[in-house]
Amino acid sequence: MNTATAAAQAGVTIATIRTWCRRGVITAAKTAGKWAIDAASPAYRINLGKLLRKARTITLTPELIIALGGRRWQKNGMDRVYLNDWAAFAGLDVSYYGTGNVSGATLGGRGIANGRVASLMAKIDKVWFDAITGRLCIRHYDADVLDVRYLDGERNIIDLPARIRVGINAAVAAL
After folding, report:
1. Domain range spanning residue 53?
2. Within 10 Å of residue 146's Cβ, how many Cβ atoms?
3. For the segment 51-91, what is each residue's pLDDT rounded down to a tens digit?
4. Higher-pLDDT residue of 66, 48
5. Three-state DSSP class for 101?
């Protein structure tokens, strides 16, 4: 579908749809200067937005982050809960051979090249909840906009830190 149809379906402006396409919020590919948008993707984004609005009413606490698998660390006046399995919250699923090499990977349920996984995972250093400030923190290296190539040949731009935040908020809302 085109941007005008997607905007009408999602109830947003065409500019918003284009921004979602550029950031990888919805599944789209640019061909001949125009966006071709997967028909199910805007509906998925709308449902995701509803989850986020529901999740925004929840205040993150150390106990909630621990319930998601976090580990608490307290030292020198700092109180943090680290989430080591941030990839799962981003929708990144990686399987490994016995040698430690990547045997397969998916991002949001879609296959990605094994060679891209290591560089993708290296973009995020740490994810933690600061119990003193009440903020979710993500230390990343140039991970704002990442170009991901799926196994079907499609390329997509994603915002990895945003995907992690959305995943954590959705998981907290589901608790």
Report:
1. 1-57
2. 20
3. 655 545 678 889 999 998 999 999 999 999 999 988 888 88
4. 66
5. coil
Q: What is the DSSP string of 72-96?
A: EEEETTEEEEE-S-HHHHTTEEEEE
Residue 25 CA to its chain's centroid (Å): 9
Same domain, 116 and 38: no
Contact between 72 and 62 (Cβ < 8 Å):
yes
- The reported pLDDT for the residue numbered 148 is 62
pLDDT of 143 reads 52
Tracing tokens 């140039």 back to the chain, one arrives at 142
Number of domains in the chain: 2
Q: Verify that 94 and 10 share a domain, yes or no.
A: no
Tell me, what amino acid is at 166? V
| 32 and 73 co-located in one domain | no
Q: How far is CA 49 from CA 16, 23, 26, 90, 158, in A?
A: 13, 15, 12, 16, 17
pTM of the predicted model over 0.70: no
Query: Do 109 and 158 belong together in one domain?
Result: yes
97 shares its domain with 155: yes
